[in-house]
Design brief:
single chain; mainly alpha; 2 helices; rod-shaped
């Protein structure tokens, strides 16, 4: 059927538009905060990893062996349940 009823509804959506803009800004703020937190966590993990590698290298030097040998020994101890 080509004939039909067409209805046009008009309204004021300015309040909705304002709410959407403010919620978009809030989401952006939380996203930026999450990115900063992730960067800080990553930096802390890298720092801890480097400290562990440094300690392992110093222990290897004291025992007159290589860091690779120390890594093998550490992995073996972990697998045996010895810390």
């Amino acid at each position: 059927m080509a004939d039909g009823i067409y209805v046009k509804i008009l309204g004021d959506d300015s309040d909705l538009q304002n709410k959407l803009k403010s919620s978009g800004a809030a989401v952006a703020k939380w996203g930026a905060g999450a990115a900063v937190a992730a960067a800080a966590a990553t930096a802390a993990m890298v720092k801890a990893g480097l400290a562990s590698a440094d300690a392992q290298a110093k222990l290897a030097a004291q025992l007159n062996t290589t860091s690779q040998d120390m890594a093998v020994m550490q992995r073996s101890a972990d697998m045996a349940g010895v810390s």
